Amino acid sequence: MDLMGGRITAAQLLNDPKSRAVLEKRFGKWLKHPLVRSAGSLTLTQVIELTKTYIPKKDIDATLEELKKL
Description:
- It is a single chain.
- The chain is mainly alpha-helical and 70 residues long.
- Helix content is 66%, strand content 0%.
- It is built from five helices and no strands.
- The protein has helices at 10-15, 17-31, 34-38, 44-51, 57-68.
- Helix 2 (17-31) packs antiparallel against helix 5 (57-68).
- The model has no long low-confidence stretch (mean pLDDT 95).
């Protein structure tokens, strides 16, 4: 999947069934948070910046690699 240099939006990732499956597998409980709906216009880079305090870097990196392989 082309992550557009981190400029792909959260909504684009969540609207694609394959990338949504990856995100649900890794962060299922987080995707149910009400803020996720309002974060749709944020870029992947922005989402990573906001969540890096809560999600270990190794998990973020592994997720990015899996998304790139789609």
